[in-house]
UniProtKB/TrEMBL annotation:
Annotated organism of origin: Gossypium australe
Protein name: ACT domain-containing protein ACR
Keyword Nucleotidyltransferase: yes
PANTHER family membership: ACT DOMAIN-CONTAINING PROTEIN ACR, ACT DOMAIN-CONTAINING PROTEIN ACR4-RELATED
InterPro entries (alphabetical): ACR1-12, ACT-like_dom_sf, ACT_dom
Transferase recorded as keyword: yes
């Protein structure tokens, strides 16, 4: 896998997009954000996913001095080279990939793009045995109807349908019929698919690859760890400071969503210890809260921790409302034949 860089003209010159894939390791996001701060780049939005020891991130940046996209090819080349070296680290296991271009309003949905990047990086190749909590996917022949039947059983969660259908679409399969059933905890999905060439899956190797890729697509959003929400004043370099505190306290970021809106930095992290354990010492989280909380004393700012068997809370931010829904419907009844094929076109329109 080789690095690449390209420029796409933008009418509004809003931001420059960076796409990176490489080996996951503790402190990765801290090092990336430090390099960007040193190069005068302001991070306005970012998202990082980790899965099977691999990491992928999409970062939107602007020039600190102008507030617009960075378009100078020489500067882009320098930034890309520095980020490439960070992603590579000391490991020669896989060559990282780095890509930078000017964003437009038509760019790919970030979640969709992260799926594509990790799929291309072959994160579906397992280096450990499956555990009982992982999704269960089967791929069977339906020769009498000339389809391949895919069934999925896993824990229900938001965006599950998006993730599975995007995976099938990115692998160039068309879904003709489907059924989705969600209960209080578990979800069941069934799809009748063919390849875009009109043929069902024809080999056991291909069946195995579809199972592995769907399992990976489901797992990417389910990082195990403690949720850390940070709301502070949006100022240059604040992401570098927050991630440095997380790293110096011996925590590893498994997922992150970075948002800037209305003068506020609203960041969400899923953190674990450096060994990947989802339960973190409460004293460590208290220290992280205290240090990050000292970055800003503005009204409406603070730090919140969830999912660590503790009730730690240092935030004036209202908690997000949580809704539980139960849905049961059949795509076979609603989107038969061509209509469901059009649904695949809607997914493709995100690319």
């Amino acid at each position: 896998m080789k690095s690449s860089a390209s420029l796409i003209p933008s009418k509004d010159h809003t931001s420059t997009t960076i796409e990176l894939t490489g080996n996951d390791r503790p402190g990765l996001l801290s090092e990336l954000s430090a390099v960007l701060a040193d190069m005068g780049c302001n991070v306005i939005n970012a998202e990082i996913w980790t899965h099977n020891a691999r990491a992928a991130t999409v970062i939107h940046i602007t020039d600190r001095s102008t507030g617009h996209a960075i378009e100078d090819p020489d500067r882009i080349s320098t930034i890309k080279e520095l980020l490439f070296n960070v992603m590579k680290g000391d490991s020669d296991f896989k060559t990282p990939s780095a890509r930078m271009f000017v964003s437009t309003s038509r760019e790919t949905h970030t979640g969709r793009r992260l799926h594509q990047m990790l799929l291309a990086d072959r994160d579906f190749e397992r280096h450990h045995d499956k555990c009982s909590m992982e999704p269960h996917v089967t791929v069977l022949d339906c020769s009498d109807r000339d389809y391949t039947v895919v069934t999925i059983r896993c824990l229900d969660r938001p965006k599950l349908l998006f993730d599975t259908v995007c995976c099938l679409t990115d692998m160039e399969y068309v879904v003709f019929h489907g059924t989705v059933i969600t209960g209080r905890l578990e979800a069941y999905q069934e799809y009748y698919i063919r390849h875009v060439d009109g043929f069902p899956i024809s080999s056991e190797a291909e069946q195995q690859r579809v199972m592995e890729c769907l399992e990976a697509a489901i797992e990417r959003r389910t990082a195990q760890g403690v949720e850390l929400e940070v709301i502070t004043e949006d100022r240059f370099g604040v992401l570098s400071e927050i991630t440095r505190i997380i790293r110096e306290n011996g925590l590893s970021i498994k997922r992150a969503e970075i948002r800037r809106n209305g003068g506020k930095a609203k960041d969400r992290f899923i953190v674990s210890d450096v060994m990947g354990n989802g339960v973190v010492d409460p004293k460590t989280m208290e220290m992280v809260q205290k240090e990050i909380g000292g970055l800003g004393e503005e009204e409406g700012c603070g730090v919140k921790v969830e999912g660590n068997n503790s009730s730690l809370l240092l935030s004036t931010k209202l908690s997000k409302e949580k809704h539980e829904t139960r849905t049961s419907f059949s795509f076979g009844n609603l989107f038969k034949g061509r209509s469901f094929h059009n649904f695949n076109k809607l997914i493709k329109s995100c690319s």
